[in-house]
Specification:
single chain; 5-stranded parallel beta sheet; 22 strands; globular
Amino acid sequence: MNETKPPKRAPILLAGGGHAHLGVLADWIAKGPPSEGCVMVSRHPKTLYSGLVPGWISGDFTIGDATIALTPLAEKAGAEFVQGDIVGVDAEAKTVALADGSKIGFDLLALGTGGTGRAKDVFGPSDTPIFDIRPMESFVERYAKWRDENSEREDLTIAVIGGGAGGTELAFALRSGHGLAEQPRIHFVTGKAGVLPGFPTGVRQHVEQALTARGIEVIAADAEVSDGELVIGGEAAVQPDLIVTALGSGAPDWPRKAGLQTDAQGFVEVDAQHRSLSHPAIFAAGDISQRTDRDLPHSGVHAVFAGPVLADNLRATTQGTGSMRPYDARRRNLYLLSTGDKSAILTYGRFHAEGVWVWRLKRWIDMRWVNRFRKLAERV
């Protein structure tokens, strides 16, 4: 942690090592940082690429395959890396507070710390362990330990709660049974909206059929924990050995406490340029932010594509050259959902396909993205 570093000020402070900030660092490596003395602060010296975590669960990838080291990447970008846990922001004094008591000042602040898990708020205490997919580093550590401790057990049951793309991939991946004595039973509790709400009907039907074909029980009902036990659709459920939740991102409490304009859930409200509506010296991208000009769901896809736009806008603001540009999200995005058995489902709008070739395409796209940053960090 950052216990010995004195308080300092940065012309640009990147708070968090999320996907959007990787795009900022790539821009600084290519073009040089907008000014001297920029800083990145993050709880972890490495970041996990979310697209590869389901493949790690199913044994298709190692955790190393999904990991990007932040320290050398920041150094190549001309920024100092500080390891620390952000616990607060003073928006008026322009300082960020870390858990060790130190503070870092800023002229411009970019928030990319990601969101928080929602399982504790939604379910409360449970007799069954509950692992929230967020934060991902914590999930990977906890699941790896649980898998090791239960590797010899048979007749395991896992409940996956949350019917979005993240929950769907988790259900497929956990069904693979990698590292366990046999494949666990999977209860995929999607909520009343069903599998992949918001996706075209044909896509949803195809994915639900693929889940059923792999022995995954799909339950289109809401879940809660009552008296420590899992209740599905208002009825007591057979208690699983593990509950994994993918309920979407929650917001940390410190942006609201900092006086930043937030929505009802506590996400930092930003404009099309990803600039705070209340504090023009603060930008935000990824799960911690909420666009107010359009409905933009929290998704790693948008964080990745917002990165270069954020880099341009930080540069324009710092150097006073040119106007900022908006992040114009595509109307349709390519989704590749691995099914845990070296196959995958491709969706693009209403079009969908499934097969080994889709899995190979996904592997190529994901590894190309990760390796891009590894190569940037190694560049002389």
